[in-house]
Amino acid sequence: MILRPRERAAKVVPIELFFDLVYVFAITQLSHLLLEHLDVAGAAQTLLLTLAGWWAWMYATWMTNYLDPDHPAMRLTMAGMMLAGLAMAAALPQAFGARALWFAAAYVTLQVGRSLVVAVAARNEPIGHTFRLILAWHAVSAVLWIGGALAGGTGQVVLWVAALLVEFAAPWHGYRMPLLGRTTTADWSIDTAHMAERCRLFVILALGESVLITGLTLAEGDHLSAATATAFAVAFLTSVAMWWVYFDRTADAAAEKVAESDDTGRLGRSAYTYSHIPIVAGVIVAAVGDELAIAHPLGGITPGTALTVLGGPALFLAGHAVFQRVVFGGFPAGRLVAVGVLAVAAVVVLLAPSLIPPLALAVLAALVVGGVAVSDSRRHRRASRADLAA
Asked: pTM above the 0.85 mark?
């Protein structure tokens, strides 16, 4: 049977973990791309490519939520997806240059090929209709991706942005397509435990890249000064704090909340497909800031340094606040205050860059994210004691 059984919670299986290895490479490529092009254009290009990479991975997760990845046909499909994903990741550094067509062709192959397989494999199931619509939308966006790669320059940017808009907007109106109709989130009932676990694993991949960059930057340094060692420790503690904020209680509680929803497809789409984007992007940006702070802990502050060291954690916390808002309702005040502190600090530094070295910015970011983690833990302990007392 190629469909995953719904009578029990699905587990993440080894082929899915194997597939994720491609994205370890992709995240590394994205962080290095941003580091080498730390300006407005470079940040915009990295954002566009990050969104494309996340979208390809997320659709793979939806696929394995419905189809059994351990089925021989699905194993072969995922192997093919890995090949296309690896080619896509390899082209990332020159996706807006010599390898634009390479990137576009790999991305289109990944998206269209996977959607075609699911549409055929689940043709007699309700989800099969959804993936036939997805296939039609990916065929439309494929024209924009390939056309942009061939156009180059401004045309490439315009067409690739249009392609992403087409793909990101499609789920919100049920993949409505002339002659084919549409679908609703009621048709997308998900295995919440599996979806949540897959997203947790991707956050771990992103945090792993942060830890990897931290270690490599320290290892490649010419000499180990007290400031460099301190920046290294601070970067690691920031990664630990981000892990704590995401995994301490919220991840499990959110999965339970989504599972209890009357429309798991709708809430899962908002909570995991969309709300996790700034969380993952924030970790990637923070990793770039870690590398800059470790390499030049007492050096001069550039706008790029300030915006990555402070902006990465701010983006992560803002994304996590949105995630909580979508699942539980109401924005968590502590995260909004923390984001405000980091934003104010960034403005001050940009106005007076000579006042504060990168190491000080890194310490501030660590204290802010660590403060959110400590506040969360205390609140959860108080809630647990209150429950026991009741």
From this structure: yes
